[in-house]
Amino acid sequence: MMLSPFRLLALATATLLPALAAHAAPTRPQDVVQAEVLPGWRQADGSHVAALRLTLADQWKTYWRAPGDAGIPPSFDWSGSENLTDVTLHWPAPHVFELNGMRTVGYTRELILPLEIRARNADQPISLRSHVMLGVCRDICVPVDLRIDAVLPVTKQPDPTIRAALAAGPLDAEMAGVTNLRCRVEMIPDGLRVTAAFRAPPLGGHELAVFETPDPAVWVSESDTRREAHGVTATADLVPPPGETLALDRSRLRITLIGDRGAVDMLGCPAG
């Protein structure tokens, strides 16, 4: 028996920013974003593919996993779930937005975020309970607290909507034709400066390279990204928390090049 998608209300427990009071656009979180779980299907290896669908009010946006200096990073807590050991998020290629001289990275209108879930017992349903914190923004930002409670049945029928969202993810470096990727690392007073150089087909528009480290406590600046005749060069600063030093593992440094026609994911950056 197929279960219909589970519709959820976006419940806000955080205090809205003061600017909301004077803004004429929708200000209640449930007027700005609605959430729905697409229950998905169980794969042959026992993992389960589902998705979180966020529908945003007109002109509002939400953020990618690395939202930029002016964005609000999303967070996910799956600890209340049952028959679940691990969740991997498969983010679709995001877009870059510019407002008042600042760039943020995220999505407008709709985000379908595929979830790859590992079950303790692959023959049993999964009780998916999650606490999701998001930022949704227009001219101002609303912090939104989503509470997800859904049962994912054992069904083998793939969902074409989720499949399309998986296909919309960034291309990996080899598939995209990235070559000659090298990174130069230098010390700065409070951390490290990393300059990446590589060749990649143009993605259109004002391209932006986003740097990420495995440690979310490391602050990463917006990169200075330039495309020239010899390829792309991007420079960003990595700054650890006060009093800590940063030991950069090049193999786990992630660089995502984002343009109007999609994104390219590069994991690992050798010296050069």
Commentary on this structure:
InterPro entries: DsbDN. It comes from Haematobacter missouriensis. Keywords: Signal. This is Thiol:disulfide interchange protein DsbD N-terminal domain-containing protein. Pfam families: DsbD_N. The protein is mainly beta. The protein has two domains: 141 residues, Thiol:disulfide interchange protein DsbD, N-terminal domain (Immunoglobulin-like); 96 residues, Immunoglobulin-like, CATH 2.60.40. It has three helices and 21 strands. The strands form four sheets. Strands 2, 5, 6, 8, 9, 11 and 12 form a seven-stranded antiparallel β-sheet that branches. The longest helix has 8 residues. The chain is globular and about 50 Å long.
- Tell me the helix content: under 10%
**End-to-end gap:** 56 Å
Figure out the total of helices.
3
| Topology-level CATH name of the largest domain | Immunoglobulin-like
Please report the first level of CATH classification, the CATH class of the largest domain: Mainly Beta
What's the gyration radius in Å?
Answer: 20 Å
Q: Care to count the β-strands?
A: 21
N-to-C SSE series?
EEHEEEEEEEEEEHEHEEEEEEEE
Q: Give the class from helix and strand content and strand pairing.
A: mainly beta
- Low-confidence stretches are 1-24
Q: How many domains? A: 2
Beta-strand residue percentage: over 45%
What's the CATH architecture name of the largest domain?
Sandwich
CATH superfamily of the largest domain: Thiol:disulfide interchange protein DsbD, N-terminal domain
Keywords: Signal
InterPro entries: DsbDN
Protein name: Thiol:disulfide interchange protein DsbD N-terminal domain-containing protein
Pfam families: DsbD_N
